[in-house]
Design a protein that fits this description.
This protein is an alpha+beta fold. It has 7 helices and 6 strands.
Length: 192
């Protein structure tokens, strides 16, 4: 498929989705007319959308038609690698809390997010998850005192953790001694 044909198909698919969202029911003849396609092409596009998870209903007979199920409320999201990691991290946090609500579908949601990644990336994401610990009670850590800084140290250390690279830091010890080190964050422990 050429680049032009691919773009044309993507545009046609977006127009089809827009039409399905805009009205309660569409006849296939009306959809064909709006999209300027054959019956076969339209049926192929509808089947492809169903395979991709779009809940497309078709009612036969007079007054029937094709529609996107009315309960379909979320668009396809386009997230970058970092955003998906942060979303998985947030889901892990919520999952670790003893909440009586909002936890029934987390496993399925996380599985769907993993499926977004290519096969080669899934093992990497799985390895990152194994290096994240969530704890609700930590008493052995000294109280954290935030300091004035020109960068967000938590963001920098999280990026180093996720990207598996070293980080140069400067800090003040409890005895007020200044020090500079290169660290390699192996684990991330979240606690409150």
């Amino acid at each position: 498929m050429t680049k032009t044909n691919f773009k044309h198909r993507v545009d046609r698919r977006n127009r089809l989705l827009g039409l399905l969202r805009s009205e309660q029911h569409w006849t296939t003849s009306d959809l064909r007319e709006h999209l300027n396609v054959s019956q076969r092409t339209l049926m192929r596009e509808l089947a492809s959308l169903r395979e991709e998870g779009y809940p497309i209903d078709a009612d036969r007979g007079r007054g029937g038609g094709v529609r996107l199920a009315s309960r379909w409320g979320i668009e396809r999201l386009i997230l970058n690698h970092k955003e998906v990691i942060e979303l998985l991290l947030a889901l892990s946090l919520v999952e670790s809390l003893p909440l009586p609500f909002m936890t029934n579908n987390l496993k399925e949601i996380k599985q769907k997010l993993y499926q977004v990644f290519p096969e080669s990336e899934r093992s990497r994401i799985s390895q990152v998850r194994k290096r994240i610990f969530v704890n609700t009670h930590v008493s052995s850590i000294a109280p954290y005192q935030p300091v004035e800084t020109h960068i967000d140290i938590s963001q920098a250390s999280c990026e180093a953790f996720f990207e598996q690279r070293c980080l140069n830091i400067k800090y003040v010890s409890e005895s007020k001694t200044f020090s500079s080190r290169t660290i390699e964050p192996h684990y991330l422990m979240l606690a409150w």
